């Protein structure tokens, strides 16, 4: 990667046209190519990307991608990259530990909720079956 990575927006293509879009954009933006598949785009270039993606049925999904990038970088939720860069190593370790605990608690709660929902559905089915059987 020839510099700082910035994700201003992202599109998803459920219709399989992502290759077509990528090929077309590489042709149209060749003059802004920095290295391989990396481009240095101005506002006009960004608008070309938006219009091409929309024209080919792309769905904007920037928030999901930015969340994934942040998770992959190890920056905990609620912390900006700028804030993260200014933290000392011990602050980063403490923040990561806290984020891990919160994530584990959330997973545990979700699992308990799913288990409770399954039990409720099973009880309802059993009650309905008993009622149908006349017992």
Order of adjacent strands in the largest pleated sheet: 1-4
Largest sheet data:
2 strands, antiparallel
Order of helices and strands: EHEEHEHHH
* Strand element count: 4
Report helical residue fraction. Answer: 55-70%
Spatial separation of the terminal alpha carbons: 69 Å
**Structural class designation:** mainly alpha
Strand percentage: 5-15%
Number of helical stretches of at least 4 residues: 5
Rounded radius of gyration (Å): 24 Å
Compute the number of structural domains.
Answer: 2
**Mean pLDDT value:** 83
Low confidence ranges: none
Shape annotation: flat
Task: Describe the protein's architecture and organization.
The protein is mainly α. It folds into two domains: 1-73, no CATH class; 87-135. 64% of the residues lie in helices and 7% in strands. The chain has a two-stranded antiparallel sheet. It has a two-stranded antiparallel ribbon with strand order 2-3. A hairpin with a 2-residue loop joins strand 2 (33-35) and strand 3 (38-39). Helix 1 (18-28) runs antiparallel to helix 2 (43-55). It starts with 10 loop residues before the first strand and ends with a helix. The mean pLDDT is 83.
